[in-house]
Write a structure and sequence with these properties.
single chain, Arylsulfatase, C-terminal domain
């Protein structure tokens, strides 16, 4: 195996007492305000809300990419997209060729074997590892650091019949009608915890929910159809999917409590990208899944580390998906893979003190691909090829088709309504220089070649992605 080169590290691990278990809830397409503790008055999430009361809430937590596969590749590898080449889902030349001004960078759809995943590192650290649900990085996660795989493969959304049985997933088959996938994944997670209660375990419960297709349990959908919607949240089926996800998380947390494992288990909750704009609203954030505006990348995040995180605390420091890998290495006292680069920084100082600051200049995104619009308001594209950098409260977005730069103060203007690029050229220069230095460091390819099939007349038939509010 790829981890053989550093497997001898096991014998060097000091005897420091029982290692903490790790449970990582990774939700698909859940928006920043899709939970009760984040302000929703329509969606219900009592178990996640309780977790927020017991742990630390992060208000400026970011996915490392605006859609599924690259976000997951960054999380698992601990590296930014330019290092592994997973930039988007499937092909990067989405939409009609006549609307694409430049030729995007070719995309990689699998996380290559050479990358040492978070799972592999924790395996070497003495953990039994399991992934349950969406994998989206290759055909078999058991070749990339997981002892147990339930329902994970290369696909990015529920296959076959979707969320309702009958279905057939790796190590998860149900021929009879009536079972709901989200419920079953929670049950399998509880079985794994019970089986491995006497040894340190890493459970990566990566729900397919709340990704499309929007399919709910009928009885829950009826509940929300009878409930008064709000201006922002009104989709009854989606609300029911959130409740089912919450119930699954509640079952897992309940199992930890039942077995007396809660005090020695670190629980993390996060989403892979922003909410789907055709299903939910990310307001007050601008944009949605597939965009580098806040609605596409800012995520709900909770960490509960008993005895370390202060219950009900709130952290406002900027954190990003690549930070989880070094954080888990530190909290589990696991030695980092030898000669393996990690782009993130450990969040442990924040977990110990929510007012602490991390020692880095900025966080970055690189998305050299096109994503077609999924509603009429998007026009041809949700996003054209772009990159972004956040430094403190400031955020700069560069659109590669024409070099447009947009500058926002995300603290004073969380909705990104005021582009300050023209008013603050010095600040633009500061962030752009940081962005360019980072691109050089990670060898990020920027698309510059013009597309010979581009038709400027056809492209102008719809307004540009830049400036869209939703």
């Amino acid at each position: 195996m790829r981890i053989a080169c550093f497997s001898l590290l096991l014998i060097l691990l000091p005897a420091l007492g029982a290692k903490p278990n790790v449970v990582f809830f990774f939700i698909d397409d859940m928006g920043w305000t899709d939970l009760g503790y984040m302000g929703s008055k329509y969606y219900e999430s009592p178990h996640i809300d309780q977790l927020a009361k017991e742990g630390m809430v992060f208000m400026n937590a970011y996915a490392a990419a605006p859609n599924c596969a690259p976000s997951r590749a960054c999380l698992m590898s601990g590296q930014y997209s330019p290092r592994h080449g997973v930039y988007t889902v499937a092909n990067s030349d989405r939409g009609s060729s006549k609307h694409r001004k430049i030729i995007p960078i070719e995309n990689t759809t699998h996380l290559a074997e050479k990358f040492v995943t978070m799972g592999e590192a924790l395996q070497v650290g003495g953990y039994v590892t399991a992934t349950m649900g969406k994998w989206h990085l290759g055909d078999d996660p058991t070749t990339q650091g997981f002892d147990v795989n339930i329902a994970g493969k290369v696909w990015g959304s529920p296959s076959g019949g979707g969320y309702h049985s009958p279905y057939k997933y790796p190590n998860l088959e149900q021929k009879e009608k009536g079972e709901y996938l989200t419920d079953r994944l929670g049950e399998e997670a509880c079985k794994f915890i019970h089986k491995n209660k006497d040894k340190p375990f890493f459970l990566y419960l990566t729900h397919y929910a709340v990704h499309t297709p929007i399919q709910a349990k009928p009885e829950l959908k009826k509940k929300y159809q009878a409930k008064k919607p709000t201006e922002r949240h009104k989709n009854a089926a989606y609300a029911a999917m959130i409740e089912s996800t919450d119930d699954s998380i509640g079952a897992v947390l309940g199992k930890l409590e039942e077995l007396g494992l809660s005090e020695n288990t670190i629980v993390l909750f996060f989403s892979d990208n922003g909410g789907h704009g055709g299903v939910t609203s990310n307001a007050p954030l601008r944009g949605s899944k597939g965009m580098l505006y806040e609605g596409g990348i800012r995520e709900p995040m909770i960490v509960k580390w008993p005895g370390v995180t202060k219950p009900g605390s709130v952290c406002r420091e900027n954190v990003i998906g690549v930070d989880f890998y070094p954080t888990l290495l530190e909290v589990t006292k696991t030695t980092a893979p030898e000669d393996y680069l990690l782009d993130g920084v450990s969040m442990v100082p924040l977990l110990k003190n929510s007012d602490a600051k991390l020692k880095r200049k900025a966080i970055h995104w690189h998305f050299p691909a096109y994503l077609q619009g999924y509603t009429a308001r998007h026009g041809h594209f949700r996003t054209t090829p772009a990159g972004a950098t956040r430094m403190g409260d400031w955020k700069l977005i560069e659109f590669f088709e024409d070099g447009t730069l947009e500058l926002y103060n995300t603290k004073e203007d969380v909705s990104e309504t005021k582009n300050l690029a023209k008013k603050m050229p010095a600040k633009v220069k500061e962030l752009h220089e940081a962005m360019l230095a980072w691109r050089k460091k990670v060898k990020a390819p920027v698309p510059t070649k013009l597309n010979p099939g581009y038709d400027p007349v056809a492209a102008k038939s719809s307004s540009k992605t830049k400036g869209k509010r939703k």
